[in-house]
Amino acid sequence: MAFILLLLELLMLLASASLASALWVSDAQGRFRADNLYLSSLTFALVIIFSMSALGMYQHSAKEGIRTTLIRIMPSFALGFGLLSALIAIRPEFYFGRGISSVIFALGAAGVVLTRLVVFKSAESALLEARVIFIGSGALARECIDLAGSKFGLHQFNVVGCVPIPGEENCVAEADLLPLGETLLVMAQKYEASEIVVTVSNRRSSFFPNRQLLECALGGVKVVDAATFFEREACQIRIDSLQPSYLIFGGGFDQSFLRASSKRIFDLLASTFITIATAPVMLVTAACIACEDGAPVFYQQERVGRNGRIFKVLKFRSMRRDAEKGGTPTWASANDPRVTRVGRLIRKLRIDELPQMLNVLRGDMSFVGPRPERAYFVEQLNAEVPYYNVRHSIKPGVTGLAQVRYQYGASVGDAIEKLQYDLYYVKNNSLFLDLLILIDTVQVVVFGKGSR
Fold first, then answer.
1. Distance CA 372, CA 374 (A)
2. What is the tens place of the pLDDT at every residue in 160-170?
3. Are 59 and 48 in contact, with CB atoms under 8 Å apart?
4. What is the pTM of this model?
5. Residues 59/443, Cβ–Cβ less than 8 Å
């Protein structure tokens, strides 16, 4: 649905720019050069789409109303206007003309609002709801019901109910339990369910309905397990429901030459651009750190990279020089008392991470990937958390899916929660996913939070 929305808005913006420009040519006797009409219109549409993407216009719920839409469109179009102005200063042939530009922006904004109202109202239609039945009524079923009822995106679910399995502890409301006595296929057809999600952990039990699930699959009803459901709907690979076979036979883990090459090119372009663009910010930051707490300005720390290789990550120093005077590594917390005043600000704005662009250029890190951890904690987590070492099969990143989806991590429990996002990224990493995480990172820096 998000892609449909983006495509429709791209077409609407193209139509607004092309139509207004064509009318201006016929009425204003050639004030606008018609030979640049299509190129200028395409440039306008792409810049506006980029601006809306950067400010999270494609990362929110379908419950968004007309007022919220209008409020969020204004800064997006303001950013688009600034980017277009900078582009026109370099390439004047993209300039529409003083009068026509106002008309195009007005038509474009109206078109976006109209498109969003139509799409969001359509998304509320029962025709677009996926009706789902859960097999099992335990704690995992409860979590799946909560996930299906959440509104993190435009996709909606209508939970028919749960089929209890004898011997499993019941953790769902009585109203969510479906009456027994019918086969699963008959039940799915009766309730018009399009999908069945298996949440039972013990599938070797004599009560587990293997034959009935096979009948459902053969009868055209989609059957998936809870791990697949969470991966698809929450961008997580759940540790508590994960079997080794899921990682072995589940596909993904693309580390081909094409993927490695595209990721390296993306890393070089992104890190070079950010280094150049933020050079003044880094100079001011270095001066502020030196004035408050003296040298050194930078902080180097050993971290675990791809395949367990140790490297030194480079950051602006945000803590006191004696932060670990005892010599024992300590988890950093969100409100760590060891953080300096300047450090608190640069942490909030993620400025302390900027020197890591040099780690990316050197090849120690990627721009997007699991965050690198210290060897002391890696040994602890490898011993306590299953599959933790899987995250070291690719290069660590400056930002990652866990960083834009989860709060600040400061414990083993937080590491487990983040690992579920890291495993998803390692399994499904792609250039497109890198771009989405980059957009979410912009939201984290600008608004202080990412999308769910």
1. 7
2. 999 999 988 89
3. no
4. 0.71
5. yes
